[in-house]
Design goal:
With about 150 residues, the protein is α+β, with helices and mostly antiparallel strands. It contains 3 helices and 5 strands; from the N terminus they run ββαβααββ. The protein has helices spanning about 90-100, 110-115, 120-135; strands at about 15-20, 25-35, 105, 140, 150.
């Protein structure tokens, strides 16, 4: 490719160079125009106007954050609310409570078979619903055969 050299010479002529790149290659078109001006002498071009910016104040430390409302802890249940004490007759909860109150308790396999739930769902139900919501204490023991047994003191 050829190089284009642009020379900067003070004159009263404006050189316009247009470069066109086509599929066949580059082609250059040069136009020279004579400019008549009212001034007869070449004066230095005026400097560009400086942007007007307001005065900057002295640097100061950041203001401390406003002490507004502080984060409040999560709301607790109403004092008058009572714990769930029982379950509807015939519900899975009622059936599980019945089995848990047996003297020897109930095995995890029996609960899985009764409810048709997966093992993690049974454990979550025992911990969350029976233990936390109903406030009952669940005793978990592992037998000699390795079977997990759950019971509730009635």
């Amino acid at each position: 490719m050829g190089r284009i050299h642009l020379q900067s010479v003070r004159s009263r002529v404006i050189d316009v160079v247009t470069a066109v790149i086509t599929a066949q290659g580059e082609s250059m078109i040069a136009n020279t125009e004579q400019i008549e001006t009212a001034e007869t002498t070449m004066a230095e071009p005026k400097a560009a106007k400086k942007a007007r910016v307001g005065k900057r104040g002295a640097p100061v430390a950041a203001k401390p954050a406003k002490t507004g409302k502080k984060a409040s802890p999560a709301k607790k249940a109403a004092k008058g609310a009572k714990k769930a004490t029982g379950a509807r007759d015939g519900s899975k909860t009622a059936k599980i409570l019945e089995l848990l109150k047996r003297p020897d308790g109930v095995t995890a396999k029996e609960l899985i078979k009764l409810t048709d739930w997966q093992a993690h769902s049974v454990r979550g139900f025992l911990s969350g619903t029976i233990g936390k919501k109903m406030g009952l204490t669940i005793t978990s023991t592992k037998g000699e055969d390795g079977e997990r047994t759950y019971s509730v003191n009635a």
